[in-house]
Every structure is written in structure tokens, then in C-alpha cells.
Amino acid sequence: MSGHLSVLQANVNHCAGAQDLLLQSMAEWSIDVAIGAELYAVPPSPHWAGDTEDSVATLVRPRAGPPLVVKARGRGYVVAVRGKVAFVGVYFSPNRDLTALKQFLDVLGPLMGQLAPLQVFVASDLNAKSMAWGNPATNPKRREVEEWALAAGLPPLNAGAVQTCVRWSGGSVVDVTFATPAIARRVEGWRVETGVETFSDHRYIRFEVSPPPVRRASSSTSFRGRSQFPRWSLSKLDRELAEEAAIGGRWSLPPLSEFGLDEATSQLCDVFSVVCRAAMPPAKR
Questions:
Q1: Alpha helices in the chain (DSSP H)
Q2: Distance CA 240, CA 248 (A)
Q3: DSSP 95-134
Q4: How far apart are CA 254 and CA 250, in angstroms?
Q5: Label partner for 171 (CA 20 to 30 A): which of 11, 12, 21, 196?
Q6: Separate counts of helices (H) and strands (E) for the chain
Q7: Average pLDDT over the chain, rounded to an integer
Q8: What's the pLDDT tens digit per position in 7-64?
Q9: Residue range 104-121, pLDDT digits in tens
Q10: CA–CA separation, 10 vs 18, rounded Å?
Q11: Rounded CA gap, 61 and 27, in Å?
Q12: Can you tell me the distance from the alpha carbon of 88 to that of 120, in angstroms, rounded to the nearest whole number?
């Protein structure tokens, strides 16, 4: 994958107008890849890859890059590969119970392991509420999803606590983006679009992915490259969220004695990045 990649995550709530608006937004913003949940319909097109029930799909802008290759699909999930990146669209209805969620995640878990060495994005609406991705209240489904994400090595990208679903009865953060750590470090500008019409009760999520870094031998060049790392709004740090994310990160961290210095440093940076994304918004540049 060369150049920047622009990604959009949406839930159109089975509305034809919302799905049309999603396609229009893709064109206006030059979105390369979109993942949509609760779709109105999934057309028979090489630019679309849907699950078995047309409830979630990945779609690409024509002529925007490599075609989609479907690796797996089932009820509520589709795995589509574009270049060296796998995009996993996931939807789980709030009307299904906790037992069904466990069974659903038991199917997804092995699929994630089979995707290596690809980098992975999971655009999900699992209707699980957790402080780990910014929802102030929790529900029983969150523990299952947290444990699944930790086991799969997929930290959440959600930054801050902006509601992704807004209804007359209240809002919540149920639309969550997960990613493998290596490509998570290349994500720029993850945000919930609060001032954009969607014709749905869900807001758009947008982010960009920078190209893979060019590795250089010069230590001085590497030092200058650090200025490209994300900056965080420390004044808005949520200490409780930071602590919860740090505990989860520690569970997923292998013994550092197994690695050399460079790899151990990279492992720690992954955990620090997860904590920062969970506990505070990025600083405005």
C-alpha cells in the first residue's frame, strides 16, 4: 500500500438515504475504504464485500487502489483484504444475548489469527459499552469484547469519549475501531464527525493511515522521525481510563526478556500508544 489511505466507518441503520449519503461522502472526501454496518442493501459489485446477511460490508472507491479480496464471511462479519491490509467489518445486534455474543466472538477469534502477517483493522458495532473505548457506562457484553480484543492483539483506536450513536433516549460509544499495533501507529486523525449529517443515529468515524515508515540506519534521522509521533492533550487525561487501558495492555504484553532491546522498546511503545488513545484525545496541531 503506497501513499496515505483514507478510511470511513459508518452505520446507516438500514436507511436507503443514509446509504446513498455514505457513498456521496466517500466521493466528496476521497475515501479509499469504507466499512458500513446495518446496510440497506449490498449491491453485486467488485467494489463491495458483504457478509452473508447484508448487515455489514467493506467497500472501496473505484480506481482507488488494489481490489478487494474476500477471505471470510459469515453472519455479521466479513473479512476483505486490500493490498497488505485486512479490513474486518463486524456487526452484532443489541437484540441478541450474551451467549450469542460469546459464540460469535469464538468464530472471530481464530479468523484474526489466520490473517497474519497482514495488518488488520476491525470496524465494529458490537453494541458493547466499555470505558476502554470511551463509554462512561458499561454493559455485560463489554467484558467479552475486551477479552476477545486482548487475545487477538487488537487495541481500540477510539480516542476520547465522543458519542458515536446519538438517540433521543441518550448517546453511547458502540462503534469501535480496533487495529493491530503496527498499523495502529500509522493511524492519523482518528475522529468522530460530530457536525456531519448521516441520516442515521450513528455518526461517521474517519481516520487516515500513513505509509509504512522508511527505516534508516542513521540514529539522527530516527530521532528526527519522532516528531511525527502522535501528540496528546494531556490536560484532558482521564486517569481511570488510562489505568484500565494500562492493565489491559500489561495482560497482553509478553515477557520483555524474550526480545532484544529494539523489539522490547517497540512492544512498550505499543502499550503506551493504546493507553494514550484510550485516555485522552489527540492534541490539535
A1: 16-29, 98-114, 141-152, 181-184, 219-225, 239-252, 261-279
A2: 13
A3: TS-HHHHHHHHHHHHHHHHHTTTSEEEEEEE-----GGGT
A4: 8
A5: 21
A6: 7, 13
A7: 87
A8: 999 999 999 999 999 999 999 999 999 999 999 999 999 999 999 999 999 999 887 7
A9: 999 999 999 899 899 999
A10: 10
A11: 8
A12: 7
| 27 φ, ψ (degrees, to nearest 5) | -70, -45
Partners of 179 in beta bridges:
121
- Nearest partner of 230 among 285, 155, 148, judged by Cα: 285
Query: Residue with C-alpha cell 478510511?
Result: 7
* φ and ψ of 28, to 5 deg: -65, -35
pLDDT of 79 over the 80 cut: yes
Structural contact between residues 1 and 211, judged by C-beta atoms closer than 8 angstroms: yes
Residue range 145-160: mean pLDDT, rounded: 93
Domains and CATH numbers, the chain: 5-212 (3.60.10.10)
Q: Residue 224: what pLDDT?
A: 44
Q: Cβ(68)–Cβ(80) under 8 Å? A: yes
Residue 159 · residue 281 · CB < 8 Å:
yes
- 172: cell is 453511547
Cis bond leading into 156, ω under 30°? no
Estimate the share of the chain in helix, then strand, then coil, as percent rounded to the nearest 5: 35, 25, 40
Phi, psi of 106 (to 5 degrees): -65, -30
| pLDDT above 70 (res 129) | yes
**Cβ-contact 29, 205 below 8 angstroms:** no
Residue carrying the nine cell digits 454493559: 139
The three-point CA angle 200-203-206 to 5° equals 135
Mean predicted confidence (pLDDT) in 269-274:
79
- The Cα 234–Cα 269 span in angstroms is 17
